[in-house]
Inverse folding.
């Protein structure tokens, strides 16, 4: 790997990778093996992405919008795929399953970075806000049709996060908020499945249905609350080992990790994740062009929204949405996409004064 890479960023990712593999090894060896393979594939993809210089490519609209168009086509194809866990969100290629909404996140990150890089002076104008909303709403609608509310919220968080830091006027921000409320009302009546509505309702009534809609969150709280400072030890997490904590390798992996490695282990994972975000911010500040700055900003927003939704669900502050913890949760599509994003950022580092 090039010497000019940000090795503090790489080291922080290594800590998260180790935490992920440890908890998977103690719980499910098959998933551990698969995650190990995905990390290998992801690292290769990350190195490949460092070789691409995006600076000249953003001057060719067909490149940027071609990536966006491919993402839309994949989403449409997914709607005709075989459902997995009641969601038409994956394309199956032999033994591999790829979640198309993950590629959409990368494509929107590229599109928004290019869009805001060129319109940064007048981004607060209503026409630019409306144009950016169209880029968001098309894939978001297709993802919602799967139905995948978690990924839809991630896409909204990415778009809205850009708006918050763009210097948008308050009246336009209120318009954006109104659009979100309208979209939420439509989604509640026509887009959300019954189990998704139950999860939202369960957030406000945590004491109700402890064996049903609130079961996962209760078990997650038990896993975290019983861990202590040092945890129960490797392979000794009762909530995970005895099968009490559902989706311990994905949605609730942070709770599963804390149960075995304690609050100190959880703090180490959090510090590693926050270091990743800080190093990405530094890379953006040191970059020499608007696209690179916007891309780094968007990456931080994307990873942060993932983190908030995942950990918020684990401790009962948010409904259980089914969003992975970046670089920690099991999941090949999300891991591969996240490492590709890091690869682009490392490419920015190599070509900057950082």
């Amino acid at each position: 790997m090039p010497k000019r890479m940000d090795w503090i960023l790489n080291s922080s990712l290594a800590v998260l990778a180790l935490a992920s593999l440890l908890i998977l090894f103690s719980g499910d060896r098959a998933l551990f093996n698969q995650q190990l393979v995905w990390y290998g594939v992801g690292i290769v993809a990350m190195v490949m992405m460092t070789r691409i210089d995006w600076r000249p490519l953003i001057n060719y609209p067909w490149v940027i919008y071609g990536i966006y168009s491919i993402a839309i086509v994949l989403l449409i194809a997914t709607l005709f795929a075989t459902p997995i866990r009641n969601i038409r969100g994956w394309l199956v290629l032999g033994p591999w399953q790829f979640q198309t909404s993950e590629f959409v996140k990368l494509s929107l990150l590229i599109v928004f970075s290019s869009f805001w890089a060129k319109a940064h002076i007048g981004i607060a104008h209503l026409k630019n806000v409306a144009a950016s909303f169209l880029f968001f709403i098309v894939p978001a609608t297709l993802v919602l049709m799967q139905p995948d509310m978690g990924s839809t919220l991630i896409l909204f968080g990415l778009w809205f996060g850009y708006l918050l830091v763009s210097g948008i006027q308050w009246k336009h921000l209120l318009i954006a908020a109104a659009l979100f409320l309208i979209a939420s009302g439509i989604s509640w009546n026509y887009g959300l499945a019954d189990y998704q509505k139950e999860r939202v309702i369960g957030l406000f009534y945590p004491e109700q249905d402890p064996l049903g809609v609130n079961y996962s969150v209760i078990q997650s709280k038990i896993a975290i609350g019983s861990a202590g400072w040092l945890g129960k030890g490797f392979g000794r997490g009762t909530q995970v080992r005895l099968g009490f904590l559902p989706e311990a390798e994905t949605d609730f992996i942070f709770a599963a990790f804390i149960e075995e490695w304690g609050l100190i282990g959880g703090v180490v994972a959090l510090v590693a994740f926050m270091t990743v975000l800080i190093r990405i911010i530094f890379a953006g500040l040191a970059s020499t062009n608007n696209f690179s700055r916007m891309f780094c900003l968007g990456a931080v927003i994307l990873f942060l929204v993932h983190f908030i939704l995942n950990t918020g669900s684990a401790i009962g502050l948010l409904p259980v949405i089914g969003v992975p913890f970046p670089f920690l949760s099991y999941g090949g599509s999300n891991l591969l996409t996240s490492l590709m994003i890091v690869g682009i950022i490392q490419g920015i580092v190599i070509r900057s004064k950082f």
